[in-house]
Each structure stands twice: as C-alpha cells, then as structure tokens.
Amino acid sequence: MLYTRRNILKKGGVLGLSAGAATSGIWTPAESFGQSVKPLFPDAYPDRKEIIQAAIDSAITAGASYADARLTHREELGVGVRAPSRTENMAFGVRVLYHGYWGFSASPVWSREEGARLGRAAVDQAKSNVLGREHVTELAPIDTTSGHWETPVKDDPFSIHYDELADFFNGLRDYIITLKFVSNLYSSFSFSRIHKAFGSSLNQFNTQTLYSSGGVLAMGLTDNKERTAGADIEEITPAGYGFEYFRDRPLRDYISIAHEEALRDLELPVKPIDAGRYSVLADQNGVGKFLVNSVGSATEVDRVFGFESNAGGTSYIDDPLSMLNTLKIGSPLLNVVCDRSEAGSVGRVKWDDEGVMPVKYDLVKNGVLANLQTTREGASWIKEHYGKTGQEYRSSGSASAPTALDVQLAHKADMYLTPGNTSANRDDLRAEMGEGIELRMPTVTFDFQQITGLSRADRTYEIRKGNRVARFTDSGMIFRTPELWSNMVNVGGKDSVKYYGLEGRKGQPEQLVNSAVYVPPAVFKEMIFIDVKRKA
Amino acid sequence: MSNVSYALNREDRVFNEPEARRIIDEIVSYMSADGRLDVQIESWWGAGQRWARNRASLTSDQREISVSVGRIVEQVPVFALSNQTDSESLKGLADHSDFYYNRWKSKIPPDRVTDTPRSNVKGAEVWSDETFNQSVVDNASSVEKLTRDSEDGGLLSAGYIETTGSTSLKYYRDEWGRETYHWGRVTQAQCSVTVRDPKGKGSSWAGNTSFDIKRVNIQEIAALAFEKSKKSLNPVRIEPGRYQVILEPQASATFTGLFMNTLSRVEPERLGIGSMFLGLDQSIQRLRSKLGLKVIDSRLNIFHEPSDPIYGTHFAPLHGRVDYVKKGILSALADDYQSHLNEVSDIHPAFPTTSYTVSGGDRSIEDMIASTKRAVLVVRLSQPELLDPGSMLFSGVTRDGLWLIEDGAITKSIRNFRWTESPLFALNNIEEIGREVQVFDPVTIRHPFSEGSFARSLNNVVVPPLKINDFSFTSTIDAI
User: Fold this and answer.
1) What was the ipTM of the complex prediction?
2) Which one of B10, B83, B157, B203 makes the best mutation probe of the A interface by having the most chain A beta carbons within 10 Å?
3) pLDDT over 70 for what percent of chain A?
4) Of A413, A417, A437, nearest in space to A493 by CA
5) Is the pTM of this model over 0.80?
6) Strand partners, A190
7) Which chain B positions have a beta carbon within 8 Å of A45's beta carbon?
C-alpha cells in the first residue's frame, strides 16, 4: 500500500488529527495533480564523445602525455511541502599530464570549441610547473573498457509527477504528527541524477547515469510531564535507488518502530554518567561512523602520503609500505572489504572517474591493514606492495569528484564490515553484554590523523542485566583507533547488517562525495566514558 | 545543444555588469507572474596551485556560473538554480518559478507578504586587479622556491594557493513592482602551507587570505610554517589541565568565531534558546536576548565594516557599520529582513557575522610571550563540536603546533590536547589582547548546489592574539 496523504485521509477516524492538522493549511491535492516538474535544461545532449575527443586531441597536440576529459550533468530535486527546489549543473573538466605534472581546467560550457580551449588551458597550467624539477608521474595500468551503465532504478524520480512525490512525503509527515506525544518533526527528501561521460587518451569512452535518493526524517516527542525524547528514521539514508526507495519500503513500520523506541525512552530515568571504563554496544550507525572515519579516511592513498596534510589532515598510516600487511588495526574480528558494485549502494558505479572498473578487495583482513584505497597514480606509490604480495598492480577504483568542475581525488569506496558467524542481532548482543552502555545514532569526530576520537549520543543508555534501565546525559566516549578495534569483542550476525550512506569531505577546494557502509552492531570492551561537559 | 550563450572562454573570465543585466532581463521577460522575485547571476573564476611532498601536485583553472531564481511561497522559498545561460535554460528557470508561484500565490496570507530589502549603502569594492591577474607561472615559481627550501631543510611542504574573481548582479522585485539591481565584484587570494617532518614527528601551519594578493605574502607564510615546524619536532606530553594560553590569531579566530555564530536574533528573541537568550520579560510578555548586557571582556569590541575592503563586505550590503560588541556589551544581533518587519531595530542581515573585526589591544605576540610566566601557545584549534548551546560549551583539538612557554620564552614543543571550553567563559577571562591581524578564512564551499552564492561565503576575519587564563585541556591526543 502506498502511504500517500490521500490514502491516509481515506482512513478518516484513525487519522482524524492528521487530516485536521494538514487541511488547516492550504494543501488541496485534488487541484494539484497532473503537473510535472519540467527539466530546467533541454533533454537532448550534443555528441558527448565528440566534445570529449576535441579536448583530448587538443591536450595531446599541446604536448600532454596523458589526458582525460569528463562531462557531467547533475540534477537535484528537493521535495518541499508545496514546491520543489531544483538545481541543475553542467560541467566539463579536462585533466592532463605534462612532463609529470598535472594540469586541470574546467567550465560549464559543453562544446567542441570549449573542449579544445580546456585541453590547451590544462596543458598551460601543467607547463607552469616545468620551470621546476623534473618529475615522473606513473599511472597504474588500466583495462580500456567502454560502454554505458545506469543505476538500475524502477521509478526515475525525475519522470514522476512532482505532486505525486509531494503527496507521498506529505502523507508521511501527516502520519507522524498523529503519533502519540510527537511535538516536532524534521523532514527533508531529495533525489539526484547525474549523467556522466568520461574519455581519455587511452581510447576510453564511457557514459553512466547515476541516481541517488535520500533524506532525513526525525521526530521529537514531549510527554505531558515535559519529558523529551527523539528518534531518527535511520532507514532513510542516501542510497542508489529511484523513488522506489521510498515507495516500496515499509516506511510506516520503520516510523512506528522508531516511535515506540522513543516512547520507551520517555519512561527511562535520566542521569549523569560516572566517568570510567564500560563495555559498550554500538548500533550499526555508530559502527559505520567509526569505520568510515578511522579506517575509511585513514586508508585513502592521498591522505596516507601527505597530499591532504594541508586540508583534512594525514593518517596514522604514516609508513605505508612497511605497514601494509603488518599494521594491526584491530582484533581478528575486524575484516573490512571494499566494493562499489552492491545494488542500492550510493557509491555504486561501473567505472570510477578515471575510467577504472572498481574491484572488490580486502582493506583490513583479520585485523591487519591489507590495502589502501587508490587512484591510478596512488597505486603507483605502493607498486612495491603489489609486487611483494602478488596482487595485480592496478587502481582500486577510488577516483571520484562531485562533478567535472572538480578534479578527481581518492574518495572512499563502499565498505563492508564482515558480520559474525552467529545470528545475533542488537538485542542479542545487548543481552549477552549484560552490563554496560549502549550508543544509538551517535555523532563521531576524529582528530586530523584519524587516531583519536570522541563519540557522543543523545541516546546513550545504561544497560543492566541486558536491559536499558536509564539514559545518560552529557556522556562521551573517547578512544584511540587501534584500541577501539582491538577491543571489539562481539559483532552481530549477517541479518543484523544495516546500510548507511555517509557524506565524505576532503580536498582543497573541499569536495563532498557520498559513500556507503554495510555494518553489523558490535560490542567493545573497556571503553572510556567521560562527562563531556566537565572541564579540566 | 549549445548550452551557454555567453561562453566564459574569454580573457575577462567573468561576466561584466551589462552582460549580467542582459541575462537577468531575459529571465524576467519570460516570467508572467507578478509578485516578489529574486534573481541573481554570478560568475566565478579560480586558479589553484596545490602541492605536497615538496612538489606541485595540481595546477587548475576553473570557471563557473550560477543563475538562481527565487520566490517565497508561504515563507518557504521556491528555488531553482542552474549554470546555463542559453535562452532555453533561462526560460526553464522562469517557467519553474512561475508555475509554483502562480499555484500558491493566492493563498499566501496577506500578513506574510514580504517586503524587499533595499539599501543605499555602498560597500567597498573588494577587488584587486593584481589578484585577478596573478599568473600561474608566478604561483608555480613561488611553489618551486618554497618547496626547495623545505626539501633542503629536510621537511615536507604541502599547501594551496588560490586566486579567484567573481561577479554578481542581484535583482529584486517586490510585491508592488519596485525593482532594484545590486552589482558587485570580489577577488580573493588565499595561501596556506603545512610543513611536516617526514617521520611525522612535528608539524606546523601558516596561512592568510585577502582580497589583495599583495597582502598574502606567500614566501613569508611558507617561511613561518617552516620555522614553526622545525620548532614543533619531538613534542613531549604534559598533563592536561587548566593552563593560561596564548591563542595565536588563527586559533583566536576559530574561538571568537564560535561566539560570533551565536549572535542571531532569531534564537533568543523568537525561539527562546541559545546562549544569548536572557529569559522571558514578564512585564511585556516577550522573550529577551542579552542585548545591552555585558557578555565578554570590556576591552573587546567586535564590528563589521562594509566600507573597508580589509574588514570585509558582501555584495549589496544592507547596512553600514554594525557594532556587535562595544566594550564588552552586546550591542547588535544579526537579523534577517523578514524578522525586521515586525521589529523596531536596525537592519542586520543574517550573514555578516562571518566577516568581522575583533579589537581591543595592541601588543605584539612576542611581547605577550615575553611577559608570560607559564602558558601554552596555540597555533590552531580544530574540529570544535558544540556540547551545550546554553553555556556555549565546545570541545575540539589543538593542531599544527603547541608549545609550552616558561619564564617569557618558548621552552618545548608539547603534544596536542583535546580542549573543552566556552567562549562565554574564556572571553571573560582574558589577560592580554594583542594587535588584530587578518587571518586565513577563505570561501569554504564554492559549489552553488545548496542555494549557493560564491560571494556569500566570503569571509574577512580580523582578530588579535589573546592571552586567556584557565583554559581547559581535558586530555592529550596522539595526532601530530
């Protein structure tokens, strides 16, 4: 069943409050159907291959030893209560190697003439550095595959009548405000579609159309004793789907589960924490954030080699060639696999932004660092590692950029934390832990080397005899990355794995790229908790 | 499809005013709906030079356009944004805006109709031809020299130089058909350098931004980062606790910025929350802010001055000078124009708290160190996270160099700390105030995807070093 506002209104008595609340505004669905959001730009592209080839030819003629060119057309649709917000952006970026130095040039103009200009301009940029020392830049080999790929979606949100989208999400909002003690609601829903074309002087040419859907849905509860609790619908997170991501999932069930959890929270006493060491159960959201920062960011090849030191920072992996296959990051339970091919993942692609088909690989195996997330140039920096281990010398396929206006950087791949061999879910882990602390939907911040972190959660529970008995205020967990993962003593089973799309930032100028994690809940022993508001 | 009628492939790289005006007029000509309308066209050019491990890693030239059309429907903006200026795309923007405005406009309650911001204030031109015409060869030469110096000194240099130029034409039309245009152009130069020990035993940083490349001395910045990095080697652990600190200007900017971010009228006077909320005034049944009360040290003044490019301005400022804090007394809160309609107050738009000057002293940082018995010298404060909005309590880490000062001199490099402190507490516990200088605070997000405006992000922060008593360091961290 679709939980659109129309369906909810049909239920009359049960949702009378909803109908009343909503119709006190100005929304009248009957008059609104039948109009769709029109594209801001014309929908017919010029020949992208010709444009890209013009750029590459121009760059090679100007002396480049390698050139790649990208075209992106990015569309974003934000679904408001009554009207959409629309963003469309077209970009054309050309990157070249000239005597070992990179040059890059980009603009919003898609034409062969502009391609020729950008190709020359990129070489001019790179040439400026040849005043200096000789430099050799090696790029790992590549399979020159071509073709077209699209994120498989059932319902392209950009082809659906906007009112149908708005009606659906207004229905969700109306449903939530009927729930007991709900005092406020925050919601935001958006879709994006990006058409990409990539070509290089290695005779590559591919095109992709990538979709993502996501948003935020959260509610706050205040009961008649003025006690408060909150709940996020954690199942709504950036993902590689169309509108079916919302339409075909039991969102009302998710909302009900979150609401019931918040109702139970209202009944729990609230108390300050006694600083000390505790066993802690982190939910999948928390484990995902631990993973993406402490392992994900720390293993980006450019960060490891100091190319991000003036921006986001460096990494505790500061001697990669000796640390690969020897650095113990965590307990043998820590097994992390990178992949960009999982259906529904926000990071899923067929080719990265260097035309590389990403591979599936072990990033951490039995707690030991096994690989880095690489680009073609980055892979060459650890060529010795591939030789030693017999692995294929190639990029892992981590080159990404938000649009062609931005140059490619090594961004995080989607990461999978291998679950345990049991069928344990979060409730089982809590029961097994017995005494300790549970973190739900925490925030996690790391230092600029991803080695020490602070995690806080509005929903931090005291666990006694396997049950939540109180909520802690102002508590925070401080940790070092190696201790965190070494202290991981239990992880949930396969069925407890959850998916999250998370935002990553890096670079100068800063770039924002989403990637995904697939993680079970986990238990960590002897973690340090403090009263975060207590000063020295 | 030729998707841009004005290709930015010319020497001038950004739109001039007549070109921008023609594009706006074309959009407006496509629109059939009356009512309030905001249209803005911006063009941006940037040249970047990135380096790491003592060699250039990327040299770039980027150009971008932003065309936005906004309307207000039921207090909610209907917003469309693109970067194409051909007629078909401009018509697409106009049609989108018209359709949703026409659908809802008859249902907008009269008391929610908004007025249009108008101002006769003219901001300073924040434009430097030298910045706009800085050549990539000049930047490459600078990088070549500074990376050689690092290499010769056995250290690794990484950094970024960027020069940008952008232009903007804003068009407003109010409910009564009154039209205004605001034209502006801005340049910005930024340079930041991190110099690290190859084995990770020390690290430091220096940087600066200005509209004028002549005020961003690249070699001086690089030399400073290099010298500090050498002095940062092999830091030792000292116990966390409360220390007197000297916040160098960059750290001071981060810390005072946390205070500035709270200076909004909406939170205390409309929502009754935040650290500037005083309470409910029973006599008039209104929520009161701390306006008129002393909130920080009485030697400190904080102001925004749009008529001086050093102190920063934005395109089409709606106000003249704003004194946020006078002699420690909260004197103004940032406001939005719509809120102003129902209030009797000066107009203080929401954004200028990102461009401000903190003044109150004139001592050099060397003098401040020389007069110090025992303190910690801080280069940067990083990753501040709000712990308690009411008391403005934050926690973060130190970064890029930390030293112990003893008996008037720097005696040792020390390991980084996690800090937990409130600007409300610390800015009332100041020992000494230095001479204010412009710090590194560049545009952070250039992309126009989220209601983007290149110029809106332009920050100019001028702050002094501060010597503060009893600054709270709660733990040491491993990162160097």
Assistant:
1) 0.91
2) B83
3) 92
4) A417
5) yes
6) A78, A214
7) 1
